[in-house]
Specification:
Helix content is 15%, strand content 41%. The protein has 117 residues and is an alpha/beta fold. The strands form 3 sheets. Strands 3-2-5-4 form a 4-stranded mixed β-sheet. A 3-stranded mixed β-sheet has the order 1-6-7. A two-stranded antiparallel sheet has the order 8-9. The longest helix has 14 residues.
């Protein structure tokens, strides 16, 4: 299988309009980048935390999704934990952040920074 393999079953990461707009405007302001890099790392009180960065290049093995004109890069180790996730961008008062609706989550910590599957 090639390093940039495509999954034949319906794995997906999607964006809300708000998230897509935020990513596109940030990349335009930043002046470089090819999309959003989404993954997870082991940490926190519940086991995993989301890792969100802007992607400057595709890494070997990345699975690439595109939604609302934005490319989303996910490493193959993270994908089973976040498959089906919808990424949203919300503003609440002075705070703004990406939020995740992940159908694989079985529990979250009280602070909302980590989750378990």
């Amino acid at each position: 299988m090639s390093p940039n393999r495509l999954f034949t079953h319906a794995m997906a990461i999607s964006l809300t309009e708000s998230a897509a707009h935020r990513i596109q405007s940030f990349l335009a302001t930043r002046g470089h980048g090819i999309g959003l890099r989404l993954g997870v790392r082991k940490t926190g009180c519940s086991g995993f935390a989301y890792v969100v960065n802007y992607a400057d290049e595709q890494q070997v093995g990345d699975v690439v999704f595109e939604d609302r004109g934005v490319k989303i890069y996910v490493d193959p180790q993270s994908l089973p934990l976040i498959d089906g996730t919808t990424v949203d961008f919300v503003k609440q008062g002075l705070n703004e952040a990406f939020r995740f609706r992940n159908p694989n989550v079985r529990g979250e910590c009280g602070c909302g920074e980590s989750f378990s599957v």
